[in-house]
Amino acid sequence: MRTSKVVVSISLLGLALGLSPAAGFDGTRTPESATVAVPLAGPGANPAPGIGRATPLAAVPIAPLEGASRPATPFEAFRLGTQALRAGHPEQAVNELEYAAEQGMPAAQWKLGRMYADGEGVQKNTLRAFEYFSRLTKAHGGDAPGTPQARLVANAFVSLGQYYLEGIPNSAVKPDPDRAREMYWYAASYFGDPDAQYNLGRLYLDRNGAWRDPRQAAKWLGLAARKGQSQAQALLGAMLFKGDGVSRQAAFGLFWLTLAKDSAAPHEAWITETYASAFAQATDDERALAYRYLENWLMGRRE
Q1: SS3 content of the chain, % helix, strand, coil (to 5)
Q2: What domains are there in the chain, each with its CATH number?
Q3: Are 219 and 37 in contact (CB under 8 A)?
Q4: How far apart are the C-alpha atoms of 258 and 286, rounded to whole Å?
């Protein structure tokens, strides 16, 4: 979240309370001491059970464009493919990226998965995206979290989790919440991915789900929230403000909701609405404490 937006939020809270941005601290517990997030011990390096059971990606015959020579390396093919995509030449982009992907390049496999998932330069094909993400997680699910491709692999796990949660129509990929949870849990715990932690928290918060556990939800949402995941900040804030399955901490909840509101995307109106509702219900004392939490957060980000 941009620092300027945090400053605006602090100023608005200050105006509502009759405080100035320079208001002093009174020793009240800060977010660092009040957080419900609990660090996790790192899991073993083995991928989650069942990884690699997805349908293998069929080999795609790759033919170089007429008059073009094959790039010397997969990296060069990937570079040319991404350039072609930006230049508006999707056929050339797919040709180059498929070559790099067939040579085992993780970035090319992930990029093709995202292209088919989003319909970027190609016709949207969820099953094709599923196949590329499956190949990537099967080959690199055990790579160390610090490797260059780790974030891409984690994102592929999150995408697979969504596909398993909802299923893919007219395919062998049926709704399978257990598999979805495996995908989210592995990316959340092994790679520490904030989007995976958010999605895992949502599963534990689902009132109709088999794993409903608000405390587990708060833990995973807290981990993601501290990494700036705005959706996790909003859900955690709402939980704490209402006392939904956890001890009510209205000021701390309002603090997280304020951060979420300032980072929310235009289409995430639910975050802004949840914040506005909480702010309207909060007492002056709760707003004052949330204000102090915001100040402390901002000071910590500057250090």
Answers
A1: 60, 0, 40
A2: 1-40+229-303 (no CATH), 43-189 (1.25.40.10)
A3: yes
A4: 13
